[in-house]
Design brief:
Elements: H1 2-20, H2 30-55, H3 60-63, H4 67-87, H5 101-133, H6 141-163, E1 170-173, E2 178-181, H7 183-206, H8 216-240, H9 248-279, H10 281-295, H11 298-301, H12 325-333
Antiparallel strand pairs: 1-2
Helix pairs in contact: 2-4, 2-9, 4-5, 4-9, 5-6, 5-7, 7-8, 8-9, 9-10
């Protein structure tokens, strides 16, 4: 009761001080707390999904989605939410650690939240570009050096923001109990975010012709569209109504849109493999592998690992599975035929880029206890029933 009375007195004092300064202020109401509770519940469910994903990270349909990278994106989204609670004025800042505007408004919200999430998405897009367009692995210095350079730039930006006077960056307004971003500093933040997302858009455009079993191009299109809509809305809001945290509808709408976009992005990529792993694990894996063979992308997704299903969180598959040491050995020795109508440039790991797609055939893979190596010139292609698009 005492805390509620103190909160009411604080909000009443804020209203009086805002009116004396010529501002219209909406006190923090139930709408703020309801929004915080709902988004917190959503992220709690997301954390459970991330833990499930990491536990089953060697399940091939999950492994091909880069589970560690996706987990880092979720952590960045949660940090962004913590920063939004402070920066958008949803809770009292006075006499709390949240009053440190640079710590939460710059480091937690912008650098560890928005910028980290954006650069991880850019890293994933660039990784797909390397795999599908340049025939390079989803690892190595070519992938990590640009990411490290971006992180170094963000670190320098954060240090400079920390040492520059708060009057030029972000500072606390006592009379309305919010943190306020100065115009020039706000412009620099949005410039960094927009440049990052333009890079993501360019990379997404470059991979638009991917015709894979997993609809990577469509996933990135949905995700990028959602994020760009919210980014435009947030940019307009910050410049059209700089003191929008004083308006309960605008601040709730802004924060809700931010994290709606984050969740749309993440779940548009991870929903199908996570749910399928949970409710129809073996059946989905069989469908996934059939479609993978039809698209001729086993090498691209590197799923023929003998350890593909041997982690603690994965169910044990029998020796009839294609994921055996013999199949992994054949994978490195025998080319995979590529359908001519798949839409993806053919690349033969043995005969090279100039080989005609059906000039030779692969070994016949029979679901027996042992997989035998059959000469590629003597093995006919098994006829498989087309299952259609899994998505």
């Amino acid at each position: 009761m005492g805390n509620q009375l103190s909160f009411s007195q604080t909000e009443h004092r804020r209203e009086e001080m805002a009116q004396s300064q010529g501002y219209r202020l909406d006190p923090r109401r139930k709408a703020d707390w309801i929004m915080i509770i709902i988004i917190t519940c959503v992220y709690s469910i997301n954390v459970v999904a991330v833990l499930f994903m990491l536990w089953n990270r060697k399940y091939p349909p999950l492994k091909c989605k880069s589970p560690v990278l996706m987990a880092c994106m979720m952590v960045a989204g949660i940090l962004w939410f913590v920063g939004d609670i402070q920066a958008n004025g949803h809770v009292p800042l006075e006499h709390t650690p949240l009053r440190n505007c640079k710590a939460f408004g710059v480091w937690v919200r912008i650098l560890l939240g928005v910028c980290t999430l954006s650069t991880l998405i850019a890293m994933r897009s660039y990784g797909l570009f390397r795999v599908f367009c340049k025939n390079q692995p989803f690892r190595g210095r070519g992938l990590y050096v640009p990411y490290a350079a971006y992180c170094l730039c963000m670190l320098v930006y954060g240090i400079v923001s920390q040492v520059v006077s708060p009057s030029l960056t972000i500072h606390y307004l006592l009379h309305v109990d919010i943190c306020y971003y100065e115009t020039g500093f706000k412009a620099s933040m949005f410039a960094i975010i927009w440049v990052t997302w333009l890079i993501v858009a360019i990379l997404s455009w470059r991979i638009r012709h991917i015709k894979s079993s997993f609809n990577e191009a469509r996933e990135m299109l949905i995700a990028c569209t959602a994020v760009f809509v919210v980014l435009i809305f947030t940019t307009v809001m910050h410049y059209a109504v700089p003191l929008f945290p004083l308006n309960v509808r605008l601040r709730v709408l802004t924060t809700s849109f931010d994290h709606l976009a984050t969740n749309v992005f993440w779940w548009s990529i991870m929903a199908v493999p996570i749910v399928s792993c949970l409710v129809r694990r073996d059946a989905y894996l069989e469908e996934w592998m059939d479609k993978l063979r039809q698209d001729g992308l086993q090498r691209m997704y590197d799923v023929q690992s003998p350890n593909a299903t041997n982690n603690k969180g994965s169910s044990v598959y029998n020796r009839n599975s294609l994921f055996t040491a013999d199949y992994a050995r054949l994978h490195t020795e025998i080319p995979v035929p590529k359908p001519m109508n798949s839409g993806y440039p053919y690349f033969d790991p043995v005969y090279g880029a100039g080989a005609y797609p059906m000039a030779h055939t692969d070994a016949v893979l029979y679901p027996t206890a042992y997989i035998e190596e059959v000469p590629h010139h003597a093995a006919p292609q098994p006829k498989k029933k087309h299952r259609g698009n899994l998505w």
